[in-house]
Design goal:
2 copies of one chain form a homodimer. The first copy, chain A, is α/β, with parallel strands linked by helices. The first copy, chain A, is 28% helix and 24% strand. Chain A folds into 2 domains: 4-114, Tetrapyrrole methylase, N-terminal domain (Cobalt-precorrin-4 Transmethylase, domain 1), CATH 3.40.1010; 117-244, Methyltransferase, Cobalt-precorrin-4 Transmethylase, Domain 2 (2-Layer Sandwich), CATH 3.30.950. Chain A has a 5-stranded parallel beta sheet, sandwiched between helices. A 5-stranded mixed beta sheet of chain A has the order 7-8-11-9-10, sandwiched between helices. In chain A, helix 3 packs across helix 4 (88-98) and helix 6 packs parallel to helix 7 (174-183). The longest helix of chain A is centred in the middle third of the chain and has 14 residues, at 144-157. The termini of chain A are far apart. Strand 7 (132-136) of chain A pairs antiparallel with strand 7 of chain B.
Chain lengths: 254, 254
Amino acid sequence: MSGKLTVIGLGPGSVAQLTPEATEALQAADVLYGYGPYLDRVSLRTGQRRQASDNGEEIDRASRALAEAAEGTNVAVVSGGDPGVFAMAAAVCEALERGPGAWRDLELSIVPGITSMLAVAARVGAPLGHDFCALSLSNNLKPWAVVEQRLKAAASAGFVIALYNPISRARPWQLQRAFELLRGYLPGNTPVVFGHAVGRLDERILITTLEAADGSGADMATCIIVGTSETRHLARPNGTPLVYTPRSLGAFNT
Amino acid sequence: MSGKLTVIGLGPGSVAQLTPEATEALQAADVLYGYGPYLDRVSLRTGQRRQASDNGEEIDRASRALAEAAEGTNVAVVSGGDPGVFAMAAAVCEALERGPGAWRDLELSIVPGITSMLAVAARVGAPLGHDFCALSLSNNLKPWAVVEQRLKAAASAGFVIALYNPISRARPWQLQRAFELLRGYLPGNTPVVFGHAVGRLDERILITTLEAADGSGADMATCIIVGTSETRHLARPNGTPLVYTPRSLGAFNT
């Protein structure tokens, strides 16, 4: 079987954050599968085709991409950020496991990318500077009770929390509920960072506190970082504050 | 004050995984500070200087870099992987907060990079495909009891766990102890991935189980990913297995 499938991370949005490895893999593909807005970031070369699909159709998209690769085509599946973080790589693996046995023999590569929380963190300092977790707030793929249990476990144990998929039209209340729950485990002045579309033209960063955090300030293109009781919010005369979590526990307890 | 300081993520090691933004920032700097082996990855252009220091001297290195930037120099501090993940960005922020007031007015930028767990995950499939955490096993900067508490919390709540700084000459037993502890919370057949020097010439990947995982198989250049009870290890006829965590909880419980 001569076809291959490559799952490619486009990073947060700016081409300055797209790795050379990803650029090369995009160039090499015969056809690119992906969610429409991600495909729109890629300039097709002559002879390349695109297969856009809607958000939420990941397994179906992965299966169609695998089927075409099995016919001998060089197929790319594109993801925003890193394909291994709440994105297409797991969907492709699952479709491969569930699909025809011949798919298991396909050449499959994953090209990593800068995932959203890293890009948001870099904009404000180093909020992920100590132990942290990444948690999807979507309860489409797990019960909401599991989300709550993980939020409690992470906050209680002192992990910084990066929230992916915070809100959507079909899931309007989850983020606000997450903030309410976290207020029971973390001080009200815990720094919270909203990073919207980092690296793109409509980038917006908001730094607030857990007490003041408002779920309605987010959308699907927002990644939210909730600090710990150790996370620092440092005012600066030039107006660009720093938010960071010291590497040492208790670094500022004297 | 005209100086500036940029903290630059070099990614896992291969230049194919170095972003154009990082390449440009490296070119622009007058002087590069960093741990020697990271600086060795960068080709200096004419007129550039390097200030290598040993591992473990992060706050001192950060302070010297900030002091030189405050004199009007364009200073780069280089980090392996992503500077915001157990690396130099938090050290620079902490040194800035503790240092002379004038440092707060410096122009400070962080350039993100592909962090180790993303590169390791991409090599084997998508083990971070569901909620996950990143945890440093070093007890230089926090008590070991806190590490144990976080391992328990993460495993009990169903987070995949990426272990950074797993072992060193001064910390020989921590990784083995972590595996022993995790065996009390996760099935023995939970997939465990050892990723050594991914993207570099001496790359080695080992896929094993929690039951069989041996702490002596790691070194400072290894990132380890411990799955959950949901993580799949799929044999393939071409000999390259896939390890991934399905996006849906209970995807394979029928």
